[in-house]
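Q:
Just now I want nothing more than another pair of eyes on a protein record. Here is the record:
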Amino acid sequence: MFLKILLFLSIFPNIVSSVTCEFCVQSGNTFCTDTYSCIPPEVSCQAPINVDFVCPKAPRVQYNDTFARTRMMVIASAAKSLSENTQDCFSNHFPTTTVYKTREVNCSNTYPNVTCLAYTAYDDTEQVIILGFRGSQGKNQDLTLSENCVANGSIPFFTNGRVVQAFYDSFMFLWDGGIRQDLRRLAYLYPNYKLWIGGHSLGGAMATIASGYIVKTGIFRGEDITLVVLGDMPVTDVVFSKWHWEQIPYSFHVIHRNDNIPRVDPFDPLNNVTMYHSRTEVWYNNYMREGDNYEVCLEAGASFCIRSPQANLTWDDHNYYFDIHLPNWGKAGCPKNLTGFNQE
């Protein structure tokens, strides 16, 4: 079959540009996004696609910048608040949102003072339940995650691919530590409400895994979930990512300019697996101020929209999203006055 395709393309070279990316890759060739054409694998291309999941696809719903920079940014930042300040983040911006419960649990068997945090909330005006996850806190938590990644790599996620165990474990500590019962209780009390899930960094990775877990356990349908995460790392393999794409139409991971965390090495050498972000990536190559341009990436994987040189990666762009230092702003209770929280 492969030889027939090559013979066909050599006889009719003008048809190369009209071959779909999926057909091209599945037949053993390379789809080159430089020219949007199908080429033999030995031909050079700056941005080649060799996995059909990576092929360009328009998002199933439209990305909304205003929704992401107001609602989802507050959801991610509220998770970074001190427990008693979580409600302040919503009271200062969306007073119809009520925090239901905040759960903080020990999530390391190796280091002391390592905790994971998530909260649930609900909004009667929007008719939504909210689930927010906090990012990593301190050196010991970073060591816990990195050592777990090196030692364990990825593990199966039901029958739908693989996820990085370090982030799955962090999520499960919270799930078993009260989030499951809180979410089920809210779903029982508000059966017609939809679910918004968000987080930043580690929180974004846990939010992605949580969205899949919630669908698999039947608490919410995928079409009733809105997932927007900020500055997360690639933690799911291609099988999970394909399944997630099919299940949850409203799914975006937002990346700020030269944020270093989304560019962590996606390869799991223990299981010979490349990890991906869930679709769809939105990349802001600027300060993410109101009115700034952004690119909704049609391809999956980090070789397309995130094109900045690896040498320019920075922690500043990881902490600042939508021109706000998320950790500091969240810890302060998300004040309306943004003085001192903007990126210089």
